Amino acid sequence: MATRKRRRLTAVGLMAVGSLALTGCLQNPNESGAAGAGLEGYVDNAQTDGDGSVTILGAFGGTEQEAFEESLAAFEEESGIDVNYTADQDFTTTIKTRVQSGDSPDIGIFPQPGGIAEFVDSGSVQPIDTYLDYDALDDTLVPGFLDFARFNGRVYAAPMRMAVKSVVYYPKQAWEEAGYPEEFATFQELMEFSDQLKADGETPWCMGWESDQATGWVGTDWIEQMMLSVNGPDVYDDWVNHDIPFNDPAVADATDAFAEIAKTDGTVLGGKESILNTAFAEAALPMFEDPPQCWMERQGNFGIGFFPEEIRNNLDEEVGVFQFPRYDGGYDGQPVLVGGDYAAVFNGNDDDVAQVMEFISADSFGAEWAAVGGWLSPHATFDSEAYPDDVTRAIADMAYEADVIRYDASDLMPKSVGSGTFWTEMVKWIDGADTATTLDNLESSWPASGEETEES
């Protein structure tokens, strides 16, 4: 699939990064003063400043860590700064422990921006407008990405990776041989096509939610997509912020729209009974059998990493994608659900840290990571030729060209709900609970106003 050529901004030379970070035109979104408990100047940690070494803690490891470190290699050589990245799968717990013990890293890379909030409240992280050119950054990013890390009027982290979740995959060769459409104007058209497949004796959808202790998150992603498509971004925001209750009719409408797929006989491979027993990483595999056992899977761009190796190695020939279509009668534009990783500074008194943040938050960062696959830049001005295939470019374009984007709701909600009751109640829902009971239970589980929980 061809993509349009984008305007490319001139990259800032690596050796000029430090002076730009300190003397560039900085935008302060909160002129009345800094937010956070006792934050008056620069936050500082126990690590030595100006020693040419910067420590980063994040959650991604394995090949992702290798690709990240490869993306840093030229910067380290030219700047003379040694970047030491540590991967920790229990990042959420580890970062809390280290900050509380006075051993915070220079930079933390958060897989959910909502996790930064408590460090804002304690004055442990530095607002980005004090070390980055806020306006220049905002100008290149997909609109809205900075707002996901905004607390009390200021932004406390910079996005350095994007995930796009409004993607539907299909087996390209079999699909084209059957003469199926390459896109759908509305959700209703997609459902008509789904019914046509069933009438022809085919199974439309591949779906699996099993994910060990995280089982249920795939269902929350579906609800988030339907909330955004059916009700639009304003209602979506009200839902995330609990300005409307979880059992509001708007949430029920979105849940019932999803039920047209998940709970309708013959629509999902193996029926709804198989959804909890099918690993999310294996859900798409029957799509690539001959003939396909199911024809479509809605999943984030990271889903590609779970495709068979022979499929990944020939992605453009084997896989087709289209954007999850808008809902007729819902939001008029084309919304896209996203996720991403955000870098936050725990040591704002170190010029080396500012240089690293300038580099990893720039629209020129990540070409090496992009080349190996599985990484998308949150910058609309990123050179899409750095992506290794047309499928990845098409997925990135979904966000770059979206009318509106919204971040994964469960990652922004209180953790006790977003990665707690939301997951478990979705499991009960797909297992037979009705929509009203499910949403009532979720509303009851929401922490009371002002209530602090260990998980939040």
TrEMBL record:
PROSITE patterns named in the record: PROKAR_LIPOPROTEIN (PS51257)
Presence of keyword Signal: yes
Originating organism: Nocardioides euryhalodurans
Protein name: Extracellular solute-binding protein
Family: Belongs to the bacterial solute-binding protein 1 family.
Range of residues in the leader sequence: 1-21
InterPro entries reported for this sequence: Bact_solute-bd_prot1, SBP
Top-level taxon: Bacteria
Keywords: Signal, Transport
